[in-house]
Specification:
With about 200 residues, this protein is an all-alpha fold. It has helices spanning about 5-20, 20-30, 45-50, 55-80, 80-95, 110-120, 120-135, 140-155, 160-175, 180-185.
């Protein structure tokens, strides 16, 4: 295959991996409430936590991250740009899975997984920024927003300009997906970590 075909393969693999709705699958297997009928209605780990199952939320967080990392690593093995293509596709697959009428999660865990697949030092920077911002503010959403904005800057500073552009696109989507959280943060009504919703 030529490089274009490898890139298309990376795109397809990434999207298919990313679109696996682990949160929905795990909660269905466990017999809990349909995720789409509670909380934010999305399929991510934060909404899984609203079922009261911390174990399922942790598993969802891990699997949503792993699918982003695995996609990026497989893509990188196919072509020089394949990691970025597959990583972005996996992220898009998570936030807009075709199987669920394009209604997916907010993408933070998959975003982090893609970072680990593309450049692990930047992934660690993301974790440090997220933990710091969340610990200081007690807002999980603010931690995610701050860290996702920091990631493309870190990649650019580390000389990974192509990756920085792709990650900036993903960060912009995260901000869009968090628009209701942003409105609540501005209004002072966002739920803090440990606070009952």
């Amino acid at each position: 295959m030529n490089s274009i075909n490898y890139d298309l393969l990376a795109l397809a693999i990434g999207y298919l991996l990313g679109s696996i709705p682990f949160g929905l699958l795990l909660t269905r297997l466990a017999g809990t409430t349909d995720l789409r009928s509670i909380g934010s209605g999305n399929i991510g780990a934060t909404n899984v936590l609203r079922t009261g199952r911390k174990d399922l939320a942790a598993a969802t967080l891990l699997l949503d991250g792993l699918k982003g990392m695995v996609a990026a690593l497989i893509g990188a093995s196919l072509s020089p740009e394949g990691g970025m293509i597959a990583g972005l596709a996996a992220f898009i697959g998570h936030v807009a899975p075709v199987w669920l009428q394009f209604k997916g999660g907010k993408g933070v865990a998959t975003f982090l997984g893609v970072l680990f697949g593309l450049d692990w030092p930047t992934a660690l920077i993301f974790c440090v920024v997220w933990l710091s911002a969340a610990a200081l503010s007690r807002y999980s959403s603010l931690g995610a927003l701050t860290a996702s904005a920091a990631a493309p800057i870190a990649l650019f500073m580390l000389g990974h300009r192509g990756e920085a552009f792709v990650v900036a696109v993903m960060a912009a989507i995260i901000y869009y997906r968090h628009r209701e959280n942003i409105a609540r943060l501005r209004a002072g009504t966002e739920t803090r970590i440990g606070q009952k919703a």
